[in-house]
Amino acid sequence: MPRGLVVKVTAGADDAERCNQAFTVSATALASGAEVSLWLTGEAAWFAVPGRAEEFSLPVAAPLADLLAAVLAGGRVTLCTQCAERRGIAADDVLKGVRIAGAAVFVEEALADDVQALVY
Question: 92 lies in which domain range?
């Protein structure tokens, strides 16, 4: 059974390098065979909305939209319940494949056997 990686990204365009690093690590871990769960929290919550990842730009970095698509295709992407509520993002507003869940689900994933959790 492959090892798991849970990545919580709290930064968005307000801290582009930290944000992009979380998506890059998630996509790279997935490509290397890990089970990946990417959590969008804080300003990163906006990337659950169609078109937002395409607007993000960081020189000398893989496009965020491509990284997000890779994680959606092979891993799990979760939008924080409270972060969505604070921003007025509803379940009907998010990309196909993005789920909305809260802290209890994050803790369950992060504490599972053979899982490493990272926060960006």
Answer: 4-119
Q: Are 24 and 11 in contact (CB under 8 A)?
A: no
Q: What is the pTM of this model?
A: 0.95
What is the residue-level pLDDT of the chain in tens, covering all 120 positions? 679 999 999 999 999 999 999 999 999 999 999 999 999 999 999 999 999 999 999 999 999 999 999 999 999 999 999 999 999 999 999 999 999 999 999 999 999 988 999 898
Task: State the CATH number of the domain containing residue 24.
Answer: 3.40.1260.10
What total number of domains does the chain contain? 1
Contact 41, 83 (CB under 8 A): yes
